[in-house]
UniProtKB/TrEMBL annotation:
Top-rank taxon: Bacteria
Native organism: Nocardioides albus
GO MF annotations in UniProt: transmembrane transporter activity
Compartment(s) of residence: Cell membrane
TM region(s), chain numbering: 53-72, 84-102, 108-130, 142-168, 174-194, 232-254, 266-288, 300-319, 325-346, 367-387, 399-417
Entry keywords, A to Z: Membrane, Transmembrane, Transmembrane helix
Protein name: OPA family glycerol-3-phosphate transporter-like MFS transporter
Keyword Transmembrane helix: yes
Length: 439
């Protein structure tokens, strides 16, 4: 059966769970490609590249990846999620091989940008697919699993490098060959497994697998133009953009910050950072499950944001002690930040998709693509400006003050998210009516 065949009935039970698992696998494979942190010293030495040059290349790839995310969202809505995902997963495997053959800085830069662009288009279809295959009673949990793809890829890259670098004589290219192979296998699995929902099936708003109502497709206005006139869209996007200042800081600079501010070893800093991510991953499913069971989104977003601001503020106060600070307290605060963030992401994703589907059922890709574009702007600013602020002030306290303010702004903006979309969907007489969930 061709992967272009549409599903004319909503998948239920084990079949739906398998489809969701394959979507998460697609994101995991895409995020795994290009994870160069474990072999970065080897790469820089082999190509004679400075860390500053690598940073500029990474910034350029972020820009192209952000633009690709928006373009991919457009294509996912117009052409089909799976029809875009499958070919671009194969292209990403080819781009990974292209990077593995890099023998100069220019070649590497081009390959890095190409890979970022191709991956950006491919990944853009995964969030709409999560929405398509998940009723509201399980949507926050599904998006929590989706978030595991990108975070888990960091752990996999480190584990694979640790296990295989010695076998391949410490060649950084070996990791890219492994990534390309994984991408190729993943693309085959996705092509053989995933199907797009037929438009009439995709447009249904579902509370459970068997309870649904239909939403009128607005006529005469473009969906995205209609969406951006809604306050709910902008409050969601701005809230998550503010939160990405903290997430990007932790992802890119957590170990470096701990080493420089608290004078711990790289090994200890890595262990502390791993505890942060593990606590975030483990508790994200717990909070997402509660969000789905209660059908409340805003409560978890605001509560998690306030808790994150409290823990970041406490961490900022501790930074003044420098090397005299207790490592145990640092770990406790890192765990607290990780748990607080775990409460926000799944409910935010679910809330965003639910508001979008009631405004217009056919623009999930474009909505998530525009969100991706704006979020990446904040991530890029964080990656570029954090080292400059630290260098100018001689420490991480000033930058973490900025992070703390951004976290507070997330909580404030999340509190402005409307509890309902303000538009009651039309109930299809041929489907069971469902009540609108509270946020």
């Amino acid at each position: 059966m061709s992967y272009r065949t549409l599903l004319t009935e909503y998948p239920v039970g084990a079949r739906r769970r398998v489809l969701l698992a394959v979507v998460v696998l697609a994101l995991f494979i895409s995020a795994f490609e290009g994870q160069l942190a474990p072999v970065l010293p080897l790469l820089l030495d082999d190509l004679g590249m400075s860390l500053k040059t690598y940073g500029l290349i990474t910034a350029a790839s972020l820009i192209f990846g952000a633009l690709a995310g928006y373009l991919g969202g457009e294509l996912a809505d117009r052409v089909g999620r799976v029809r875009i995902l499958v070919p671009f997963m194969f292209l990403s495997a080819a781009a990974c091989l292209f990077m593995a053959t890099a023998d100069s800085v220019a070649h590497f830069a081009l390959a890095r940008i190409v890979l970022a662009f191709v991956e950006g288009v491919a990944v853009a279809g995964t969030q709409p697919l999560i929405r398509d295959f998940t009723p509201r009673m399980g949507r926050a949990q599904a998006f929590a699993f989706w978030s595991w793809g990108s975070v888990g890829a960091n752990f996999l890259a480190a584990a694979v490098a640790s296990a295989t670098l010695g076998v391949f004589d410490n060649q950084w290219r070996s990791q890219l060959f492994i990534m390309a192979g994984a991408a190729l296998v993943g693309a085959v699995v996705v092509a053989l497994t995933l199907r797009d929902l037929a438009p009439e099936v995709r447009r249904a708003v579902r509370l459970t697998e068997h309870e649904a109502h239909s939403v009128e497709v607005p006529q005469g206005r473009k969906g995205l133009r209609l969406l951006v006139t809604h306050r709910a869209f902008w409050t969601h996007v701005l809230a998550m953009s503010f939160l990405y200042v903290l997430l990007a800081t932790m992802n890119a600079y957590a170990q470096t910050m701990l080493v420089q501010q608290f004078d711990v070893s790289v090994r200890v800093a890595s262990a502390m950072t791993m505890v942060f991510w593990l606590s975030n991953l483990a508790l994200s499913l717990v909070f997402a499950r509660f969000s789905d069971r209660t059908q409340r989104r805003k409560t978890f977003m605001v509560g998690g944001g306030v808790a994150a601001a409290v823990f970041v503020g406490a961490f900022l106060a501790l930074m003044g002690q420098g090397s005299e600070a207790s490592s145990s307290v640092v770990i406790v605060l890192f765990v607290g930040i990780g748990v607080a963030l775990a409460a926000t992401f799944g409910p935010w994703m679910a809330s965003f998709s639910e508001h979008v589907e009631e405004v217009h059922p056919d623009i999930q890709g474009r909505a998530f693509g525009l969100n991706h574009l704006l979020n990446r702007t904040f991530i890029l600013a964080t990656v570029l400006f954090a080292p400059r602020v630290v260098e100018a002030t001689g420490g991480w306290e000033r930058w973490m003050t900025i992070v703390w303010v951004a976290t507070i702004l997330f909580a404030v903006t999340a509190a402005l998210v409307p509890s309902t979309t303000g538009r009651r969907p039309r109930v299809d007489t041929s489907a069971e009516a469902v009540t609108q969930p509270a946020s």
